[in-house]
Design brief:
By secondary structure, the protein is of the alpha+beta class. Helices cover about 50% and strands about 10% of the residues.
């Protein structure tokens, strides 16, 4: 959220709301990736917010839904660049994970509604572990 989108809020109020939303989103990501350091969770959230062009709350919810796929893809980090979640045509709402070796391949296989999760370089974030 920015001050232009929320004209009825002052700039300071809009910034406080945005900061609170990000903090709540981080708590969701920390809980869903309990074995990861905080800085890795923060980087994952920030990357996906930018990639998906949506707010931190929606992004955190999507990441929590895909938590097992993310952990599995991350465990294969030498083999995968990331995870492409494509809508399942049979169920409509569920997403199928595709483990991608390159981002270029993910972009070529992407369909409307697909979500790219770039896991490259996340291993350099090894700060304090989450509480889980």
């Amino acid at each position: 959220m920015n001050a232009q989108q929320a004209a009825w809020l002052t700039r300071d109020q809009a910034e406080r709301v945005a900061a609170k939303a990000r903090q709540k989103a981080l708590e969701v990501v920390y809980a869903s990736q309990a074995q990861w350091p905080h800085d890795r969770c923060e980087e994952l959230l920030d990357r996906c917010v930018r990639e998906w062009s949506c707010g931190p709350t929606v992004t955190a919810h999507r990441l929590a839904q895909a938590q097992e796929y993310i952990r599995h893809a991350y465990s294969m980090s030498g083999l995968t660049a990331g995870l492409l979640l494509v809508p399942d045509p049979d169920t409509g709402g569920d997403r199928m994970p595709l483990y991608m070796q390159t981002e270029a391949l993910a972009r070529r296989l992407s369909v409307p509604g697909a979500l790219w999760i770039d896991l490259r370089g996340l291993d350099r974030f090894n700060g304090e572990l989450t509480d889980g």
